[in-house]
Write a structure and sequence with these properties.
The chain is of the alpha/beta class and about 425 residues long. The chain has helices at about 1-10, 20, 50-65, 75-95, 105-120, 140-150, 165-175, 195-205, 225-230, 255-260, 295-305, 310-330, 355-365, 380-385, 400-419, and strands at about 30, 35, 40, 100-105, 130, 155, 180-185, 210-215, 230-235, 245-250, 270-275, 275-280, 335-340, 345-350, 370, 370-375, 390-395. The protein has 2 domains: about 1-30 and about 310-419, Aspartate Aminotransferase, domain 1, CATH 3.90.1150; about 50-305, Aspartate Aminotransferase, domain 2. A 7-stranded mixed sheet has the order 4-10-9-8-7-5-6, sandwiched between helices. A 4-stranded antiparallel sheet has the order 13-14-17-16, with helices on one face. α4 (about 75-95) packs across α11 (about 295-305), α5 (about 105-120) runs parallel beside α6 (about 140-150) and α12 (about 310-330) runs parallel beside α15 (about 400-419).
Length: about 425
Amino acid sequence: MAVTAAIETKQLPKAFDVDAVRSEFPILETPVRGKRLVYLDNAATTQKPRVVIAALRRYYEEENANIHRGVHYLSERATDLYEKTREQIRRFIGAGDAREVVFVRGTTEGINLVAATFGRANVRAGDEVLITAMEHHSNIVPWQMLCEQVGAKLKVAPINDAGELLVDELSNLLNAKTKLLAITHVSNALGTVNPMKDVIAVAHSAGVPVVVDGAQAIPHQRIDVRELDCDFYTFSSHKMYGPTGIGVLYGKLDLLNAMPPYQGGGDMIKSVTFEGTIFNDIPYKFEAGTPNIADGIAFGAAVEYLSSLDWQALSIYEHGLLQYATERVKEIDGVRIIGTAREKAGVLSFVMEGVHPHDIGTILDQEGIAVRTGHHCAQPVMQRFGIPATVRASFGLYNTREEVDALVKSLQKVKEIFN
C-alpha cells in the first residue's frame, strides 16, 4: 500500500505556486480606495511581471536605438534583442520558421492585415466570408468592410444558449463561395473555448483557409500553430503579461509570401525608385516604418517568463479557480451566468436581476475590485442573449480563491444596497 501511494503521489502534477507568482507583479501590492487590489479584468489587459518592466527600463537606459538600419553598437544590440523576440515567439507558438512571425500592434491589426492583404487578393463579388456569432468586434468589422468593398457576403455561424459554437451548422455554411473562416479561439465575452483543431479540419476539408483570433486563448493554454494547422493566428502581447502596442500575426510561409504589402514606407522595401519599388522579404514586407522596439523587446521578456512556467500545473490551477468562481457566484440569488459552455477559459460573465452592470462595477470598485462591465466589444453576443451588458470577471495566473471570495462578498453587498 505504501509503495502504491508513493507511485500515485509521484504521478501527481506539481502544484502551482500562486504566491510566488504574485510576488513577481508589483502592481498587486497597490491599494485601491483603501482596499487591497483585486484585479479581475485580465481579459482586457493583464498586469506585468518585474522582468517585463525591467526590460523596458533597460532598453531606454542602455540600448535605445533604431533597428535594422544602423551599423553602430546600440543599433546592432537593439536589433539583436528585437529579433530575439521573434525567435522566442516562434518557439512559443510552435511555428516552423521565424519568417512566419509578423509583428503588428495587436490582434486587431493582425486581423485587419489579413483582411487588407489576403482578403482583397482572394475575395471577390459574390464570395462569402464566414465568422461566428461570438466574435469580438475586431473579428467582425474588418470583414464587413472587406465585403462591402468587394461585394461579398458575410455569413455567421450560430451559437447555442450555452454560448457554444454549433460546429455542424458552421460546416453546413461552408461552400464553394466561402473564401475564409475567421473565428475566435476563446470568446472574450463568454469564455467559450472553441474546438479549434476540429473546426480547422472541417474548414480545410472544404478548401477554406482559417484565421484565428487567439487573443484570449494564448494566456491560458499552450498553442501549437502547426498542430492546429491554422493558416493565420493572431494575438496581443498585453493579454499575455507583456506590454501594450505590440502583437503577432502568424501566417503560413506560402500564404505570407503570396500576400501584397499592408502598408508602404521604410524597412518594408529592398529598393525604391520613382519608377517602382522592390519589396522586402517576409516578415519585413509587412512591417513598415520604425517599429515598437522597446515593447517588442519587453514582449520577449514576457514570452520568456511564460515559457518558464509549468503549464500543466498552471492549467489545472486556472481551471479550478474558474470552477470555484462559477460555483460561488451561482450561489447568489438573482445572478445569471452568461456563457455556460462545457469548455471555458478565464472568463465569468454574469448579470444580476434588477441591477445594471455599470452600477455593479462601480460598487465593486469601491471595494478595490476591478472588473469589466459593458458589451465587451461583442455587441452581437449581448443581442444573442437579450441583454445590454454583463459584468465580466476574468482571471489570470496570479488570481486566488480569496479574491473570488472577496468578489462574492462584494456582490452580496450590491444586493443589499439595491434591495
